[in-house]
Design a protein that fits this description.
This protein has 13 helices and eight strands. With 287 residues, it is of the alpha/beta class.
Length: 287
């Protein structure tokens, strides 16, 4: 089995490296030459990557990038029966259209967006939210299990992306709550490390709190303690919260907290801070 991995960025690179460490026959590709040179198993072109490939995995920024890459792959893929696994975070409608198009060409498709950040990608402990036909998911499982420790099936194509939109809306809302609470604690003169230790073992505990503590110091490995170097960039949080709002609009479901979080992170990204970790939004709250 030959695997083609397209998108060797912040998340895609460690995911592809996990697969490569499993001694699989893998070729990578990225439009960025620096990313290509950093991966030992890169093809010379996307055309070369397409040759005799059985499974294509994409990890790309937006739906337009995924659609464009799939167009290229279909142009150069000489046989049917391939499996396409999209680990990007894109909208539900584009995902369903993609699944239908690939089915018309005789290929399988699984939408498999991830959670866990770069840390989990490097450790091979990502969580995957899966949508697609059961037989396609079963075919994808052995590869996804190399990159992740938690795989949850949600049903038809697009349902993995639907789950991701809802999941990241929780993350965005929670992040703002954690930031506001730490800002108030600081304004009240509380010791930040003691407050962090309290929350970490109490009802306020969350993944966001422990892994994205917004103030420098209490969590040495957090982005805040490392100049807010991105584990998950604020622009990506803004994008994902926007996708959640798009899904909410399509269903008529009102999500006022999600809407407020989407607006706040988009404003933060638009002001030029989009490449910082999303926890850096704390700086606009405490001032």
């Amino acid at each position: 089995m030959k695997i083609g991995f397209i998108g060797l960025g912040t998340m895609g690179m460690p995911m592809a490296q996990c697969l490569a460490s499993g001694e699989l026959n893998i070729s990578g590709w990225d439009t960025n030459s620096q990313c290509r040179s950093s991966f030992d198993h890169c093809a010379q072109s996307i055309e070369q990557l397409s040759e005799d490939t059985d499974v294509f995995i994409t990890m790309l920024p937006e739906a337009k990038h995924v659609l464009a890459v799939v167009d290229q792959l279909l142009e150069h893929c000489a046989h049917s029966g391939c499996l396409f696994i999209d680990c990007s975070t894109i909208d539900v409608d584009s995902t369903r259209q993609l699944a239908e198009r690939l089915a018309c060409h005789g290929h399988g498709f699984v939408d498999a967006p991830v959670s866990g950040g770069r840390e989990a990608a490097e450790q091979g402990t990502l969580s995957f939210m899966l949508g697609g036909k059961s037989e396609d998911i079963q075919r994808a499982r052995p590869l996804l299990e190399i990159m992740g420790s938690k795989l949850v099936e949600f049903g038809q194509s697009g349902s993995g992306q639907a789950a991701k939109a809802c999941h990241n809306m929780i993350c965005g809302i929670t992040a703002l709550g954690v930031c506001e609470s730490f800002a108030l604690a600081d304004a009240l003169g509380l010791d930040m490390e003691r407050f962090f230790e309290l929350c970490k073992g109490a009802a306020a505990q969350s993944w966001i709190l422990e892994n994205r503590c917004p103030v420098p110091g209490p969590a040495p490995d957090s982005p805040a303690s490392n100049d807010y170097a991105p584990g998950f960039a604020a622009r990506l949080m803004a994008k994902d919260l926007g996708l959640a709002q798009q899904a909410a609009t399509s269903t008529g479901q009102k999500t006022p907290f999600g809407e407020a979080a989407a607006a706040r992170f988009q404003e933060f990204a638009d002001k030029g801070d989009g490449e910082l970790d999303f926890s850096a939004i704390y700086q606009t709250i405490r001032g």
